[in-house]
Specification:
The complex is a heterodimer. By secondary structure, chain A is an all-alpha fold. Chain A is built from twelve helices and no strands. In chain A, α2 crosses α9. The termini of chain A are far apart. Chain B contains four helices and no strands. In chain B, α3 runs antiparallel to α4. The chains are: A mainly alpha, B mainly alpha. At the A-B interface, α3, α4, α5, α6 and α7 of A face α1, α2, α3 and α4 of B.
């Protein structure tokens, strides 16, 4: 099996979660007044769930510049994800890097970096995971727009738990020792606090930076003799 | 047409956030940065998990979702397998709800 297909298949367990939110997005987009093709165009072009939901909430209320700026801020967390996956993409042609970055969602990032970490990762796998999430997101958005109001809330079926459960499973690849566990627990607590007190998705960036910073500090403290 | 222009603007800034660091960190990094980057995935994934699992509707929710996340955490720890983690968590969600706990 090619790496691309492995990545594509690996994204399948997340598909119910992606599709549930895709349907919801499509339905909301119609309520905002999008035509079906516009609903799909936004997914195909932007491919960023949280930002798209937020944009729908602002549509007609806020100006274009404000919506674009908010999208930027919500997606700043991808800087951190990009930084951590960059070492694995070193030496790749800039166009190939751009292709991999284009559809990097939270979900496919998590799938790809866990696989790189386990030594089985490849750019084909990364692209496959990206593509799987991308297609499911776009198609389910279209279905949501066409089906309209007939869609129930994903939370009723627990489908909103697919993402956190998947991330939990993928996170374990990085919880190798006590420091890794401390990093994860700290980031989780900070994220919950930030979720309440910070706007938008800032909590991912802040908890990600502080949690990973703590990892380096703990490493220094526990191995003071080790020269870097 | 105007909507399409906004989509393109959103797409451009989104691509920027995804590509910027991948493009910028193209060369060998200083050791300290390398060590820091090794801890980023654990921190980022934990930061995505906690609010989504414990406050799925935007508010802290201590119900069926917590059972699902606790079982999911245990299975994730033991198996390190995504599919089993999702299946066990979802099964727990359904079971606990069916039992009306």
């Amino acid at each position: 099996m090619t790496d691309f297909r492995r990545g594509l298949l690996a994204s399948l367990p997340l598909a119910p979660g992606v599709a549930a939110f895709g349907l919801l997005y499509g339905m909301m987009a119609r309520q905002v007044g999008f035509r079906p093709w516009e609903t799909v165009a936004m997914s195909v072009l932007v491919h960023a769930g949280s930002a798209q939901f937020t944009a729908l909430g602002m549509w007609g209320v806020a100006g274009a510049a404000q919506i674009v700026l908010t999208t930027l801020v919500i997606n700043l967390r991808h800087l951190l994800m990009g930084a951590s996956i960059a070492p694995y993409l070193r030496g790749l042609h800039p166009l190939r890097k751009a292709l991999l970055a284009l559809w990097m969602s939270d979900e496919s990032y998590a799938l790809a970096i866990a696989e790189y970490e386990r030594g089985r990762g490849s750019h084909g796998y990364f692209l496959g995971a990206n593509s799987g999430v991308y297609v499911v997101w776009a198609v389910s958005g279209l279905l949501g727009a066409l089906l309209g109001m007939a869609i129930p809330d994903p939370a009723r079926y627990g489908l909103d738990l697919v993402f956190p459960l998947a991330f939990l499973g993928l996170m374990m690849a990085f919880v190798r020792d006590r420091i890794g566990a401390a990093v994860a627990v700290t980031a989780a607590v900070l994220a919950l606090l930030g979720f309440y007190w910070l706007p938008g998705k800032w909590y991912v960036l802040v908890a990600g930076l502080l949690g990973s910073g703590l990892g380096v500090v703990l490493e220094e403290v526990s191995e003071p003799c080790k020269t870097s | 047409m105007q909507n399409l222009l906004v989509f393109i603007g959103m797409a451009a800034v989104t691509f920027f956030t995804r590509y910027a660091m991948i493009a910028a960190l193209g060369r060998e990094m200083p050791p300290l940065v390398q060590r820091w980057l090794r801890y980023v995935p654990a921190a980022v994934l934990a930061a995505l998990v906690a609010p989504a699992g414990l406050a799925p509707n935007g508010r802290l929710q201590l119900g069926t979702n917590v059972w699902a996340m606790v079982v999911g955490l245990f299975i994730a720890w033991r198996t390190r397998n995504v599919l089993w983690t999702i299946l066990s968590g979802m099964a727990t969600f359904w079971l606990v709800r069916a039992l009306g706990l």
